[in-house]
Amino acid sequence: MSRVSAFFCIVFFSTFIGGCGGGSGGTNGPAAGGSPTGKEGLLNLQQLLKSLAADMKPAPAKIADVEKVEPIYPGAYIALVQGNVVYSWGKSISSSASDTILAHEKKVPESGGFVLMQDGTVKEMSAAEFGSAKKAK
């Protein structure tokens, strides 16, 4: 095998093996750029709120309440601190409120995007749908 062929084989396998590892940016943590997407932040907030409900604990009333659990729910914390997710503080998950918005990406009122419904589902809405939807107060 020539040196050039050996070099390309090494580069190919190094690239292939390096690309096969697990990456960061799941629903729990920040994306590759260090900040979660709005959807990731909402999914992580959803997990946080479901966990609090299961433990019969109150929903966060302020950012300091989320800061306490930031190591477990970093996506929610970062999205809230950066203002990429807007949340109705103190409101919890309720299976009977599927028509009420609990949190949303900051951009949703103008251009649509993802919302967290009070029943715990995350879905996409247009700006018009958001405008006419019921919001948690």
Q: How does this model look, in words?
A:
The protein is α+β, with helices and mostly antiparallel strands and 137 residues long. The chain has one domain (30-135). It is 42% helix and 15% strand. It is built from six helices and five strands. The chain has helices spanning 3-19, 38-54, 63-67, 74-82, 108-111, 127-132; strands at 85-87, 100-105, 113-117, 122-125, 134-135. Strands 1, 2, 3, 4 and 5 form a five-stranded mixed sheet that branches. Strand 3 (113-117) and strand 4 (122-125) form a beta hairpin. The longest helix has 17 residues, at 3-19. Mean pLDDT is 82; it is low at 3-32.
Question: Hey, roughly how much beta strand do the residues contain?
Answer: 5-15%
- Helix-strand sequence: HHHHEEHEEHE
Secondary-structure-based class equals alpha+beta
End-to-end separation in angstroms reads 70 Å
Give the % helix. Answer: 40-55%
Number of discrete domains: 1
The main pleated sheet reads as: 5 strands, mixed
Assembly type of the chains comes to single chain
Which runs of at least 5 residues are low in confidence (pLDDT < 50)? Answer: 3-32
- Outline: globular
Please count the helical segments: 6
| SS elements, strand count | 5
Radius of gyration: 20 Å
Mean model confidence by pLDDT: 82
Detail the topology: elements first, then pairings.
Blueprint: H1 3-19, H2 38-54, H3 63-67, H4 74-82, E1 85-87, E2 100-105, H5 108-111, E3 113-117, E4 122-125, H6 127-132, E5 134-135
Parallel strand pairs: 2-5
Antiparallel strand pairs: 1-2, 2-3, 3-4
Helix pairs in contact: 2-4
